[in-house]
Specification:
Elements lengths: L9 H16 L10 H8 L3 H9 L23 H9 L5 H10 L6 H10 L28 E12 L5 E11 L5 E6 L4 H15 L4 E4 L6 E4 L5 E3 L1 H10 L2 E4 L5 H18 L8 H16 L10 H12 L7 H7 L2 E3 L5 E4 L2 E4 L8 E7 L2 E5 L6 E6 L55
Parallel strand pairs: 1-4, 4-7
Antiparallel strand pairs: 1-2, 2-3, 5-6, 8-11, 9-10, 11-12, 12-13
Helix pairs in contact: 5-6
Amino acid sequence: MHEECNSNDLQEIISCAIEQMKQEAGEAFDRNKINLAELERRTHISRSKLRTLKKNDFIVKPHGRTGQKAESVKLTGYTDTIDSLLRDGVSNSQVCYDRIVEQGYEGKLTQVKVYIAEHRDLIPAKRMTVSPQGNRGRRYHTGPGESYQMDWGFTYVLSCDGTEYRVACFAMICHHCGTRYIEFFPNAKQENLFIGMIHAFFFMGVPKYVLTDNMKSVVTKRDSDKHPIWQKDYEVFMNLVKFQTKLCKPRHPFTKGAVERLIRFVKDNFLAGRIFTNVTELNYQALQWCNTQNGKYHRAVDCVPMERHKGSCLVKATPLMQSLELGYYLCPKRRISFDGFVNYEGRRFGVPYWYTKPVCRISRKEFTITVYSDDLKQILTTHDVTWSRRDSFCSDQYLTQQPEELPTTPITTVIRQVQPKLPPTGYEKFNFEEGLWNE
């Protein structure tokens, strides 16, 4: 009994079967008179295929159309988008697939992977880095609704006129289930930190602890016992929302690595090749992306984050209720300039002239900028969200009539006005109405 050939190569299968038949037949074996039925039984190749191979002395030759490709495939018309992403260093096949699906691509992910593998020459070369050393530290774990992690990430935006400016991404993630929330702001000031945290708490609930690094807007310094001294406004905010803050060690990803990995995932996945018109549209896309990612299975946490968060974390977390005190954080205070403007997110918006107080409050919600009175009891005016650097005027920012002075004492003088005399015309000598007819 001869051993069977375990190879998947067609040529090796046929050669192995013919060699076995030759050893069994001995000297009577004739290659030109091979029993094709027996060869079919041994190789499981159709007899018509064996007849074709017999004409070539059982030598497998490549197909006549090998190497030829169809002129048009489902990926045709979308390769320019993939090439642009590859030149920008985006080689993630899922990101490329998501971008072209938004443009109408109906094919599968495999075609995108094959195309990327064949065009890796478009990807810029990466800088060589030193191999990191391993660590046997134990990872940090928490229970449902016990702690969230938050951090800032930054990216540059290339505007239409070719200039470049920086925007900040606020990120918060549940440490237990991996539910994530991101929001973009023009900068990482403390007022934007409060707005991002409030929106994240509305989205995920209020945990017991929030893990963060040593932000200037969170902690100012430490006392002699190495205890943190909180920034006064942040401490008031903690007491209002009723949560505690834990500071993590610098350069220690085992405690706050989830949000740091989220920041990198946002840059590699969400921001890769992203195009937007204004910050509101960008945040709409970010929220949609968060909902998509929260609804997918994640191997790191071995669950679908949205399902586990609803089932266990929200039971432990405290729901955040809207209040007037939170409204003050969502609508930061601004001083009105001498020409009737307030500066918000790097742009100036007009305030009505009839509002006489020196300060007001302003907020951005969806596609509208709303200006409130200092006590949030009155809406002064609204503006459209814009990235233009030009000033945005309101309809009643200035008086339509010039101011007029009125008398402050009784008026005692009177003057008289008469009709002006007409100049002589030269026809007075022909006036016979007087004198001549009475003589």
